[in-house]
Design goal:
The complex is a heterodimer of chains A (474) and B (178).
Chain A (H helix, E strand, L loop, with lengths): L11 H5 L6 H41 L19 H7 L7 H35 L5 H4 L17 E4 L9 E4 L5 E5 L4 E5 L7 E3 L8 E6 L6 E5 L4 E6 L4 E7 H4 L19 E6 L6 E5 L8 E4 L6 E5 L6 E6 L5 E6 L3 E6 L4 E7 L6 E3 L5 E7 L2 E6 L4 E7 L6 E3 L5 E6 L2 E6 L5 E5 L5 E7 L5 E7 L5 E7 L5
Antiparallel strand pairs in A: 1-28, 2-3, 3-4, 4-5, 6-7, 7-8, 8-9, 10-11, 11-12, 12-13, 14-15, 15-16, 16-17, 18-19, 19-20, 20-21, 22-23, 23-24, 24-25, 26-27, 27-28
Chain B lengths: L5 H4 L7 H17 L2 H18 L7 H23 L7 H7 L1 H4 L1 H9 L4 H8 L3 H12 L4 H8 L3 H23 L1
Classes of the chains: A alpha+beta (474), B mainly alpha (178).
Chain lengths: 474, 178
């Protein structure tokens, strides 16, 4: 190819027209390059996500004193800001950084030595306490906690299997402190100790029991939202006592729409709830009611007062899943019309629409603005919402339950008889858990990302909830 | 639910400062520092500076980019001053020559994939500038305009470079395959 053939800045069109191009050869090289670079691209995307998460943290912290930060330097946007300005926010670019790092390392070593020392001391104390007559026996003879030297259970180890249940597990929700799990079936809600199943508490929705398709724990852990199909509305309960605190009902939700309540086609006398999710700051709730009589809207309301704040329309069928973005600015929903949509909550506008498996689930990345959903019965896709770019996909049958790991790396999907964990960036398989049952239809990550609870049944109709180790992933 | 300073992280789709500028600035910093951790730290500092400045969202995008890139280059210069790595070297020169130093990480990664060992080897034998364009295009998914800022070349020239690189790869790659 001679350079003289081309103007200095050929357009994309011209580049494509270069002779003598064999299109399939070019496509092959391009495809190989993409595959070759995919791991590196994945690492770079993860770096960007990590920095964004750190930035969001700092931003949240800084927003409190935003006024104080209006410094005179703010006008110096052109060219290089003053050295002083740089230093004030770049501690490690000061001279002497290496010296300071040395000190920090030394301090870390001292702390480590101290920690190990105190661990040995405590260990000795516990042992002597066991042998001798003890006045503090209750604290010492407590059931043994795993000692630091015990290696953590391996990935995929089942740490707890629930008693058999005749009904499918429809939903799981892990308490924010990671200690309790709420599970639901077609008859009731149970709340139990996450890794032992102890101290079970049963809640019967609507006072008599019923199918609970959705559960959502308030971020402060003090309340649990229970959405039953045949109920008078979304029930907010105290998860420590099982007492009903408030019912958010469909008549409130349909206020905005005027007529329609009388036309409510109820499932079992009531209108019920199909999906609900607490906003990340706990101040709002997004709820989709069961039945098109409510316009297939996602209702945004204040769970403290019961007042409707807003409603998001766009779905043309019953909604099956709603989820808030980590920053609380967006809500995603999908349903039986076969689309997934994202709304900007403050403007109520739909900003993202893609084809999705009917009746599936949607989840957001824990930091950032990506969503995962099943695009059809055999494909899961991760999309970046602001740029509308497909990030990656994973091919496997979808059972309509999925969850993004709290560290953002992995996505867990219920697929046939398995729970599959795959890399959220590269789309590569990380692990397959095969012991849940014949038909996995629900799962949830623990808040620390160490465990997953999943539920499945076998041919005999027996259902089990299993809590298993989901970390560390390769 | 209204977040303060939303423009920085999550304003209207496609218009956040971070979405618009972080990928290219990160690629630049990674290239300069040859350390993923340091590049992440510096990227955070660049956007913290934007956060500190406060009203960056209210100026036009070209100026936002100019300001952010100014901070990024400043940070990179600080980084080298502190490290005493390339003393008294003009940053423009560093950009041109740093690919040997930064090359270690991507190359190690590339060579780990035996399936594409021949392709990775063929890339290594390309002229440095072509390697740079391939790394930035496929390893960072950057546009020609973004690459132009990093490599101090015009977008059109980069298109040519990439086109030439692909052509060369096709030749070498297939010869080694046969």
């Amino acid at each position: 190819m001679s350079e003289a053939q081309f103007p200095p800045q050929p357009s994309d069109e011209q580049t494509r027209q270069l002779p003598p191009v064999n299109a399939s050869e070019e496509a092959e090289v391009l495809g190989d390059l993409r595959r070759l670079y995919q791991p590196l691209l994945g690492r770079n995307v993860r770096s960007l996500q990590r920095v964004r998460a750190r930035l969001a943290e700092q931003e949240a912290r800084a927003s409190n004193k935003a006024d104080a930060l209006q410094s005179p330097h703010a006008t110096e946007w052109h060219g290089h800001p003053k050295e002083k300005f740089m230093r004030s926010i770049v501690p490690h670019s000061e001279p002497g950084g290496a010296w300071r790092r040395g000190i920090t390392t030394l301090a870390a070593v001292v702390v480590l030595v101290f920690l190990v020392g105190s661990m040995i001391a405590v260990f000795t104390l516990v042992r002597s306490g066991k042998n001798g007559p003890s006045t503090t026996g209750s604290s010492i003879t407590n059931k043994p906690t795993p000692s630091p030297s015990t290696p953590p259970p391996a990935l995929g180890t089942t740490v707890y299997t629930s008693p058999v249940s005749g009904d499918d597990f429809y939903a799981f929700a892990w308490s924010p402190d990671g200690k309790r799990v709420a599970s639901s079936t077609r008859s009731q809600v149970q709340i139990w100790d996450a890794t032992t199943g102890k101290h079970p508490l049963t809640y019967m929705p609507n006072g008599q029991g019923g199918s609970v398709l959705t559960l959502s724990w308030s971020p402060d852990g003090t309340k649990l939202a229970v959405g039953a199909v045949s109920s008078d509305g979304l029930e907010i309960i105290d998860p420590t006592t099982g007492k009903l605190i408030r019912v958010f009902n469909q008549s409130v939700a349909s206020q905005e729409q005027g007529p329609g309540l009388s036309a409510a086609v109820s499932f079992n006398g009531g209108a019920g709830v199909a999906a609900t999710a607490w906003s990340p700051n706990g101040k709002l709730m997004a709820t989709a009611f069961f039945g098109s009589a409510y316009g297939n809207k996602v209702v945004i309301w204040n769970p403290a007062t019961g007042a409707v704040v807003s409603s998001l329309s766009g779905q043309n069928g019953m909604i099956s899943s709603v989820a808030w973005s980590a920053d609380g600015a967006y809500v995603a929903a999908t349903g039986y019309s076969g689309t997934v949509q994202v709304w900007n909550v403050s403007t109520r506008k739909v900003i993202f629409t893609k084809t999705a498996q009917a009746g599936g689930s949607v989840a957001w990345s824990p930091s950032g603005l990506q969503i995962v959903f099943a695009s059809d019965a055999n494909t899961f896709q991760v999309w970046d919402v602001p740029t509308q770019k497909l990030i990656t996909n994973y091919l496997a049958p979808s059972n309509a339950a999925l969850g993004w790991s709290p560290d953002g790396r992995a996505i867990a999907v219920a697929s046939g008889t398995d729970v599959i964990l795959w890399n959220a960036v590269t789309g590569k398989l990380m692990y397959t858990y095969t012991k849940t049952g014949n038909n996995v239809r629900s799962l949830a990550w623990s808040p620390d990302g160490k465990y997953i609870v999943s539920g499945g049944n076998n041919e005999a109709g027996n259902n089990y909830a299993r809590v298993w180790v989901a970390a560390p992933l390769p | 639910m209204q977040q303060p300073d939303r423009a920085l992280l999550a304003d209207a789709p496609g218009t956040t400062l971070y979405e618009s500028f972080a990928p290219a600035i990160f690629a630049y910093l990674l290239k300069q520092t040859a350390s993923r951790e340091d590049a992440e730290d510096l990227l955070l500092e660049v956007f913290l500076a934007a956060l500190e400045r406060g009203n960056l969202a209210h100026i036009d995008e070209a100026k936002q980019g100019g300001w952010l890139w100014g901070v990024a280059r400043h940070k990179a210069a600080d980084y080298f001053r502190q490290r005493r790595r390339f003393p008294h070297v003009d940053l423009g020169l560093v950009t041109e020559t740093a690919s040997d130093a930064e090359g270690t990480e991507p190359e190690q990664m590339l060579m780990q994939q035996e399936e594409f060992a021949q392709l990775a080897d063929a890339i290594k034998r390309l002229p440095t500038q072509q390697q740079d364009v391939i790394h930035l295009r496929f390893g960072h998914d950057l546009s020609y305009d973004e690459m132009a800022t990093i490599l101090h070349k015009r977008a059109g020239a980069l298109r040519m470079l990439l086109s030439r690189a692909l052509r060369a790869l096709r030749g070498k790659y297939q010869r080694t395959e046969q």
